[in-house]
Amino acid sequence: MGLRLKGVAAANGIAIAPLVHFHGDLTFIPMRNLAPEEIAGEKDRLAEALGQAAEVIFQLRRELASDLSDHDTRIYDAQLSFLNDQTFRADLERTIQDRSCNAEVALQQVIARYEKVFEGMEDAAMRERAADLRDVGRQLLSVLLEKDRSVYISDGKDYIFAADEFLPSDAGLVDRKHLKGIVTARGGKYSHGAILARSLGIPAVVAVDDVLQRVGNGTQVVLDGDSGALIVEPDPEETERYQRLELEQAEAERRVFEVRFLSSTTPDGVGVRLLANVEAARDLGRIESGIVEGIGLFRTEFAFMERRQFPNEDEQLAMYRKAIEWADGKIVTFRTLDVGGDKPLAYFRTPEERNPVLGWRGLRISLDWPDLFYTQVRALLRASAGGHARILLPMVTSVEEVARSRAVLEEIKADLAQAGEPHDPDIELGAMVEVPALVDVLDEVLPLVDFLSVGTNDLVQYLLAVDRDNPRIAQMYTPYHPGVIRVLRRIAEKAISHGKPVSICGEIAGDHYFTPILVGLGYRELSMAPVFLPRVKLMVRAFPLSECEDMASRALALGHAREIRALARDKAAQGWSTFLEGADS
Questions:
Q1: CATH top-level class of 3-24+150-235
Q2: In Å, how far are 464, 487, 489, 508 from 559, measured between CA atoms?
Q3: What global pTM score does this model have?
Q4: For a disulfide at 366, which of 15, 225, 373, 531, Cβ 3.0-4.6 Å?
């Protein structure tokens, strides 16, 4: 049996190929003491390098635009913002001036100082910016040293990328045609490298300690992106088993492609509405409208994040109308502004907070800044005249917050009616269930709303007290935890008892292994990234409701996350097998 190294599963899939080491090739930093008359010229040299590095990143962003969502290409926008940041440039110039050193040395010192600050932050999203900073530093050094970072040519052979971390610029240096998998020593499931791997459809395992020291260059490995493992020099039996899984996945992908336009109905006729999560109106053009029954989560904050100031009512109205027109009568669920935490606005400075994820964010900001909330709700109501729109409140904590939001909605509806402004007077208002305490007051909340949507990403994080972006404890973040399953059941039961629809809009909605359990728990609406829709539809069509309910009952009775995960994976594998044999109707 081969050596099995454990990491964090970052992108699903199986890869079998030799492992290739990728090391930074810019370790030598020349040092020069500058004469006073040389300093101005060195600053000019730095300015030219900043411009050239920005052009390299911009070209890479354009090259990958067809393979990545608009949200994922923002990874490169974050790097460009570093290069264009005047404070960053001023710090580099000041270091050149004060230390009479060349630009390479100044860059090394400033990057190290910034990196230490970012990595010391409690907010995971801000810690992740340290990797962006290191990548920007590599780009700048390559320009300053007039040294092109070498592009890897695999000579037509498949390989698995192995490095300390997978940085955004690496996507432009590797042979993506033959890149079968990615394994790194650092990073978390939500690092930028992991996000890129998922977007590019490349299996990935991150946070494998000492992988470069323990596994030699060219060693044959199996990368299991489903379980987060790297098997080094697998024996013939292991290789054969994983090769079989590879073939099954390839066949499943073909059949998934065939089923994507069929109805999302269980074999015994129970419908499950499958919706898409989107972040901007332009993302809609990438969705095959026939595979989706509407938009279950339109993240309005991303339109705010792209601007230099708050969009006014008419600007918001134009954006919301685009989504409603695209939906052509299908449902569109607009989440109101959810900034703060890991989604700051450059033009809206929030106070420094020790733990921003638990701080002033989401609905808390909207209710504290009523002008902002009124403007958005007015725009949404005006847009609702053109189709089926819903309003979803994020980060709801109390009944009082819902009551205040409902009052605002009713007040604006009355104003629009008096002004003769077209709108949907019956527009639905919903609450996101993310804060665990809200579960215990749902009997009081449900009479005030028309639907619930469970944001499982934050709900799981808060239930388990686990920062999912912290690599030290990332393995503890699991929606398969028995406590999570039981809370999801309670939420569904409460909604059903009040006759209100309830959906899942977090990542587990797109986890096809989880689908039968969610259906068995009572969920009939799942909203996810569009890429996951066909697989989830396959699972809905594979299991009758009785089997889904049996799986949910068994999951509720189990006491360990690994047991629930094994149950889901084993049963899902049976569904795959049935489907691959052509049993789907």
A1: alpha beta
A2: 15, 14, 15, 19
A3: 0.70
A4: 373
